[in-house]
Amino acid sequence: MNTIGSATYYSSASRYGRIEKNDTKSSDAYATSQLPGDGSKSLGAGDNPSGLSTVTLKLQGKLVSLHVFDLSNAKPMNISALPQDQYNEFMEAKKQLIETSMSSLENEYSTHEDPDLSNYAGLKPYAHVVIAGNVVATVDNQGVVTSDDALGKRLRNMLAGLDGVSGPDFAQKIAEQIANFVGGRIQKAGTAITQRQFNSLPPIPETRVTVDHVGMKADPRYAQIESWKQDYTRYEDRRVKYLTQMIN
Fold first, then answer.
1. Do residues 242 and 80 lie in contact, with contact meaning Cβ atoms separated by under 8 Å?
2. Which residues of 115-127 are buried (b: 16+ CB within 10 A; e: fewer)?
3. What is the pLDDT of residues 181-198, one digit of tens each?
4. What residues have CB less than 8 Å from 97, skipping those under 6 apart?
5. Which H helix or E strand runs over 226?
6. Going along the chain, which residue ranges are E strands?
7. What are phi and psi for residue 224, nearest 5 degrees?
8. Which one of 6, 74, 120, 162 is most buried, counting C-beta atoms within 10 A?
């Protein structure tokens, strides 16, 4: 059957450890930052920011880039006092870590319920292409073609060049092209609708996603992510205070 129509990663590390220093608050200093299973090393106090490396992950079909800092030889630093570019890099890395980890964790505790589309008129057959009494292809009211694999491969390139708006008018155009191509005839389906009816249909229902928030919040990783959020807020607050002091 051929239809022609118009991995989860959880990063639990890259956390910033704390080092006590006489004139630096422990939660505003960091010494280590490493992604699990990744030997990449990166930025330390006084290092050139060009040493910043990037790890690209595929999350739910999307590419996400995380910055990795090598702090193997890092000295304690006051994050609030970082040059603006280094501070921005640090905060962006922290933000991406939080967002990526939370999205991945939430996905683990989510169930997906597909909508019942059995009675949705827009997806029902518009026409069949018939040869010697046998249906070789079916076009639905959207203009999506279903056929066997062999014919589908032959039709793919031909139909790729067709322009049109999704709906019965486009479906008719596609059916005619297929019939001419295979030497068949068009047999209108009893479920065919008009373009006007198609345009009046409600949107196709989306998949319903339910998150088990109780279970997710009981997961130790949730507490870790929440602590990263608190760190992030502290860094922001202390940055504001530091800049205010510099101005005054």
1. yes
2. eeeeeeebebbbb
3. 999 999 999 999 999 999
4. 11, 14, 15, 66, 228
5. helix 220-247
6. 2-4, 53-59, 62-68, 110-113, 125-131, 134-140, 145-147, 185-188, 208-211
7. -65, -45
8. 74
Supply the DSSP string of 107-156, one letter for each residue: HHTEEEE----TT-GGGSEEEEEEETTEEEEEEETTS-EEE-HHHHHHHH
Copy the structure tokens of residue 171.
Answer: 């479906």
23 burial class (0-12, 13-18, 19+ CB within 10 angstroms)? exposed
- Per-residue burial over 61-76, b = 16 or more CB atoms within 10 Å of its CB, e = otherwise: eeebebbbbbbeebeb
pLDDT at 205: 85
DSSP assigned state of 75: P
On the 0-12 / 13-18 / 19+ scale of CB atoms within 10 A, 160 is: exposed
Give CA–CA dist 210/102, Å, rounded.
15
pLDDT at 153: 85
Residue type, 8: T
Instruction: From 35, 96, 90, 102, select the one nearest 65 (Cα to Cα).
Output: 96
E strand or H helix at 175, and its extent? helix 168-182
What average pLDDT does range 97-115 have in this prediction? 95
